[in-house]
Write a structure and sequence with these properties.
By secondary structure, the chain is mostly helical. It has helices at residues 3-22, 28-55, 63-72, 79-94, 98-126. The protein has a single domain, classed as Four Helix Bundle (Hemerythrin (Met), subunit A), CATH 1.20.120. 81% of the residues lie in helices and 0% in strands. The chain is globular and about 45 Å long. The model has no long low-confidence stretch (mean pLDDT 96).
Length: 127
């Protein structure tokens, strides 16, 4: 199994865990669960983006650079939103503030899952 295939398998599982968390009641402990699932799902997304781009012999490092390259390779169609997801992940993984957690949870509930599913469609074609 290649690195990209392994990441794809992990991302598919993570996406389902994230999807499950979307149905949770919006209480502080369950919001924290949603955010944690978001954090590891978005991390797997950009790592898979990097692995797919590497299949084209294009070296790219760093989350923001990977996201920009993923847009150039047409793996994603809205890099600005993906950059916001990366920023959300950085905000929530390095410190905890209730106001930030609420803002991030509200933001990711809107369209993170849709963006992951669109990316997965492109990823499956490339792997």
């Amino acid at each position: 199994m290649t690195k990209a295939e392994s990441l794809l398998r992990s991302l598919l599982l993570a996406k389902e865990k994230y999807k499950e968390a979307l149905s949770f009641e919006d209480t502080e402990p369950l919001r924290e669960s949603l955010i944690q699932r978001f954090e590891y799902t978005v991390e797997l997304c950009w790592k898979l983006m990097a692995a797919i781009i590497a299949l084209e012999d294009v070296p790219v490092a760093g989350t923001r650079n990977v996201i920009r390259a993923a847009a150039r390779f047409r793996l994603i169609d809205n890099p600005e939103r993906w950059l916001e997801f990366a920023d959300h992940r950085n905000r929530t993984s390095h410190l905890y503030l209730e106001a930030v957690a609420r803002m991030v949870a509200d933001s990711i509930r809107v369209d993170f899952l849709d963006n992951v599913e669109k990316f997965l469609e492109q990823a499956r074609v490339r792997i």
